[in-house]
Amino acid sequence: MNPMQMLKEAILSKGKAINQDVLLVDSFLNHQVDVSLMKAVGDAFAAHFSGQSIDRVVTIESSGIAPASFTALAMGLPLVIMKKQTSKILKGDLLQTTVRSFTKGTEYELTAKREFLPAGEKLLLIDDFLASGEAAFGVLNLAQQAGCEVTGVGIVIEKAFQPGHDRLVRAGLDVCSLARVKSMSEKGIEFVD
Ligand code: 5GP
Q: How many angstroms does the Cα of residue 102 sit away from the middle of ligand 1?
């Protein structure tokens, strides 16, 4: 079975729409992780982006880490995890921007050390979900501060009825979403063809 079909089947059999806007996939992506599926996801992103000149994979903690790790492994590239919180041990020349969390409704300081984003590099962002695009635009902002460029975005589950995809495409990015949800409710989940 191809990775996109495996992912769609996991969403249909294990995903739960909490309401029309939020999908719970904590049994294979956000809490318990199906590593075989994540390996297939990483291989699919590598197949899509490998012809492009990319220097580094970036993601946001914590749910982007599994798919981004397998993508970086498949592409033979370094991986940088952007932090949602600072801590006493996160020191040095830090890049920061404020991002509004879609699921929590609160704001956080997206943070990365400048030394892990060398100027001039091309970055591939991998994340678990795409909703409004706020998280992705936060990463674009940090990349710009570092003198890097995000050229591609790989998303495991895109909610196509929310504005993130169009915003990123309008910004000139190559967006590869493996599963595109058209609508969801208690009755079921539908995908864009
Ligand atoms: P955005 O910034 O595009 O609005 O939202 C993307 C981020 O919010 C993702 O990194 C993900 O962590 C979280 N998110 C957005 N929508 C959902 C959802 O339906 N389910 C889950 N589990 N997380 C979501």
A: 6
